[in-house]
Design goal:
Elements: E1 3-9, E2 12-15, E3 19-21, H1 22-25, E4 26-29, H2 33-40, E5 43-46, E6 53-58, H3 59-69, E7 73-77, E8 82-87, H4 95-123, H5 126-138, H6 147-164, E9 166-167, E10 170-171, H7 178-199
Parallel strand pairs: 1-7, 2-8
Antiparallel strand pairs: 1-4, 3-5, 6-8, 9-10
Transmembrane segments: 99-120, 150-168
Domain Stage V sporulation protein AA: 3-89
Keywords: Membrane, Transmembrane, Transmembrane helix
Length: 208
C-alpha cells in the first residue's frame, strides 16, 4: 500500500552539525506516524569540511533517498526544487565581540544618518527658509533656535520612527518594517543567485 509523504523543504537552512537529517531542513507530513518518524530521521547529507560553507542541494536527491528507504513511499513535494544548507561550525557565543560589533554598527548608522540629514538641510537651505518664515510671521529676526527648529527636529524623529515602524522592541503595527523587507529581499536574491550559479557551472552561459 502506497504511503504519501508531503515534503516542504526550506530554501535555505542554517545547520551547526555535520550529520544533516531531513527534519533539519524540511517540514514532513504523513498519516503514518512510523513512516513520518523514519522520514524525519533520514540522513540526507554528511558534511566533511570543517569550514563554514553553503551547499546547494536538489530535492530530487532527497526523494530518491526516501524511496530507497521505503519503496512504498509516494513523495509529494510542495516546497523548493533546489535548496541550500548553510553550515556553520558550532562555537560558543562571544558576547563581548557581539556587543562590540553592535555598538560599531550603531555608531556608523548614527553618524551616517546625521551626516545625510545635515547635508540635505544645507543643500536645500532649511535654516534660511526657517529664518525667512519666522521673520514673515513674527516680524523679527530669528536667532536660529526657535519653535520652528524645535518642531522640525521633533517631527523628523517621529517621522523616522513612523517610517521604520518600530522603536527599540516596540512595533507600531504588525506590518514588517522597511528594513525587514529589504533584508528578506536581500536573502532571497542571495539564495537565488547561489542556486543559479550552481546550475551554470562549467557552461557557456556562466557569468563568472
Amino acid at each position: 500500500m502506497s504511503k504519501t509523504v508531503y515534503l516542504n523543504i526550506s530554501e535555505i537552512t542554517e545547520v551547526h552539525h555535520k550529520e544533516v537529517q531531513l527534519k533539519d531542513v524540511a517540514d514532513v507530513y504523513c498519516d503514518d506516524s512510523a513512516v513520518l518518524n523514519k522520514c524525519n530521521a533520514l540522513r540526507i547529507k554528511t558534511i566533511h569540511s570543517d569550514r563554514n560553507k553553503r551547499y546547494i542541494e536538489s530535492t530530487l536527491d532527497v526523494i530518491k533517498k526516501l524511496v530507497e528507504m521505503d519503496p512504498a513511499i509516494s513523495v509529494n513535494n510542495v516546497g523548493k526544487v533546489d535548496y541550500i544548507i548553510d553550515y556553520h561550525r558550532p562555537k560558543s557565543p562571544n558576547w563581548v565581540w557581539q556587543w562590540i560589533k553592535t555598538i560599531f554598527v550603531c555608531v556608523i548608522c548614527y553618524c551616517g544618518a546625521a551626516f545625510a540629514i545635515m547635508t540635505f538641510n544645507n543643500d536645500v537651505s532649511v535654516a534660511d527658509v526657517f529664518k525667512e518664515i519666522y521673520k514673515i510671521i513674527m516680524r523679527e529676526e530669528s536667532n536660529g533656535f526657535t519653535i520652528m527648529e524645535v518642531s522640525y527636529s521633533i517631527g523628523l524623529a517621529v517621522g523616522i520612527v513612523g517610517f521604520f515602524n518600530h522603536f527599540a522592541k516596540i512595533k507600531i503595527n504588525t506590518d514588517p518594517t522597511p528594513l525587514e523587507v529589504e533584508m528578506r529581499l536581500y536573502e532571497d536574491n542571495i539564495s537565488k543567485t547561489l542556486i543559479q550559479n550552481e546550475g551554470r557551472k562549467e557552461s557557456d552561459i556562466d557569468a563568472s
